[in-house]
């Protein structure tokens, strides 16, 4: 609401921006009765930890620098006709790193895990390193191929002798019947 009030007060020069801003969902802020500047209102809405997970889209460099000082607030801006999501600020990266180390496993649980590992003998010892054992491999698959027989004139002859050709048997009954029919027609 504060941004819309500020756009109204700036007059006809920013009428198009006001129309675009009116299309978006309007979030209620604590400045309902006494509006403040748009950048101050946006900064108050993201507070310390950005509980509503807002993105801030601005071309104002002062506001962008203030937003970068807060962790977990994505920043959008426009370059030519393209919307660009700014890379995470160092403050955001540090915040995420802190969350990963502390919230995944609490400190007292880390200590109890280390103690249990020592009791069971699973703790890593610095001096001892395991070597990877080589497994016995099989023979080379190319050496297991069957030997090819050399083609020679002598070698081809026995192979033809061994092969027996099957001759097709004709059905003599049908052939005899056809011959008898032909003889009877001739007579």
From TrEMBL:
Q: What is the lineage of its organism?
A: Eukaryota, Metazoa, Chordata, Craniata, Vertebrata
User: Matching SUPFAM superfamilies, A to Z?
Assistant: PIN domain-like
**Descriptive protein name:** UTP23 protein
The entry's keywords:
Nucleus, Ribosome biogenesis, rRNA processing
User: According to its UniProt entry, what is the function of this protein?
Assistant: Involved in rRNA-processing and ribosome biogenesis.
Per the record, the GO terms for biological process are: rRNA processing
Which family does the record assign?
Belongs to the UTP23/FCF1 family. UTP23 subfamily.
Pfam families with a match to the protein in the record: Fcf1, UTP23_sensor
Source superkingdom: Eukaryota
Give the species.
Steatornis caripensis
| Annotated PANTHER family | RRNA-PROCESSING PROTEIN UTP23 HOMOLOG
* Basic residues bias (residue ranges): 162-172
Q: Which Gene3D superfamilies match?
A: 5'-nuclease
Major site of localization recorded for this protein? nucleus
Q: Where is the composition biased (Basic and acidic residues)?
A: 107-129
Q: Where in this chain does the record put each UTP23 sensor motif region domain? A: 130-149
**Record's subcellular location:** Nucleus, Nucleolus
Gene it is expressed from: Utp23
Any Gene Ontology CC annotation: small-subunit processome
Region annotation (Disordered) ranges: 107-187
